[in-house]
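Subject — a protein and its fold
Encoding — discrete vocabulary of local shapes:
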Amino acid sequence: MSETRERIRRRVYAEPGIHFNQLARELDIATGQTQYHLRRLTGTGELVGESFHGRTHYYPSAFEPEDREAVALLRRESCRGIVLAALEGESPHPAAIADGLGLARSTVEYHVRNLARCGLVEKRHDAEGVHLTVPDPEWTASLLGEVEPTVADRLVDRFTSLLDELLEE
């Protein structure tokens, strides 16, 4: 195996769910070269690439298929913040989470829909309104342990939030 391919393989094993651009950027590999080696690694079945929410993420082939989208979402700072707020709070309202994270309510709602589809959070309706809960805290905590958003991921999330705020005004 070439040195470049081995570097890519090691990074994906160390950071399951890493997305293509982050992988190329962190390893300082040209886009075409990254594509070539990822095609070879996915072609042999050693890695799996899946597209979620506009980004292609890579995982070791043994990584649980049902966990892949959840990990991709948790790599985003905004999603991670929402899940952490739901874990720490007593069924917080999405509006309170939006205020606490400095996000637009529409951004929180968008992320909550995706997080709920993956089973990371649930929306509960009662007389007081909508609350968020985490249906499986142990599973969620184990996935949170797999990921830590990078500075680049945080900057993209913050830029997206800024655009959301500007469009709402």
